[in-house]
Task: structure prediction
Amino acid sequence: MKDMRRIPDELRNLLASIVAVSVMTLCTHGLGAHAQERIELEDGSQLTAFLVEPAATTDRLSPLVILMGGGPGNLSISRDTSQWLGSEFARRGWLVAVPVSPNNRAFRGYENNQKILMLIDQLQQRVDVAPGKALLAGISNGGMSALEIARRNPERFLGVAAVPALSTSAFDNKPLAGFPVYLRIGGEDQLGWAERFDETVAALEEAGVDLDAAILDSAPHMFRMNWESLDAWLAKIRVETE
Result:
C-alpha cells in the first residue's frame, strides 16, 4: 500500500508539469475575470482565495462552487487550479472560489474544514452570489478534503465532485448516506489510485452515498474533465435541490 504521507510531495511535482500543460492549452475565449482576494473570516482570521467570476452576466444569482487544488493546496497550485478547472466552472455560470491552504495541508482536519464553511458564509453575503447550498469540488488531495468537509456538514452542500479522490471507510462515510458524489479516477494513475478504485466505490456505496463513479481509461492522475458527464451530474443535483 502506498504511503499516503508522501502524496502531497508527489502531487506537487505532478501538478507542476501536468497543470502547466493544461493551462497553456486552455481556450480562454469567454472566461470570467480572475482575482486573488484576502477574505476575512468570522473568527478574525484571513484566507486567500482565487475567485473566478461567471463568464456571462445574467439576472440570476450565481451558484457557488468551492474548488480545492491538489497536493498541499498552496498558492501556485490554487492559482493554476482556478485557471484550469475553475475557468470551466465559470463558463457554466458558477462563481468559483479556490482557497489557499493556510498551512500547506490542503483543507484536511477540523480547523481547515471550518475555514471552508466560514468562507462560504462570507462569499454568500455578496449581492451576486446565491444563498443556500454550495458545491464542493476537489482535485486529488483536494477531493479528499471535499469529502471530509461534506461528511461534517452534508446539509450545507449540493454534492461533491472528487476528481480524483480516495475514501475507503464505509463507517466514516455514513453521514453521506443519500448524498451526491461524482468520482473519477484515471486508469493509468501514476500514484496507483486506480488500484484502489473498487475499494473506494465499495466503501461509498456501503455507506449509502448517491455515487456516480467511473475509471477513465488511459487517463493519468491529472486529467481533462469529461464535461458532458459532469454537466449532466451537475444539472441533476441542482434540479433535485430546487
User: Anything to note?
Assistant: The domain at 4-241 is CATH 3.40.50.1820 (Rossmann fold). The helical segments are 7-25, 75-91, 110-123, 141-152, 197-206, 227-241. Residues 1-31 have pLDDT under 50 and may be disordered.
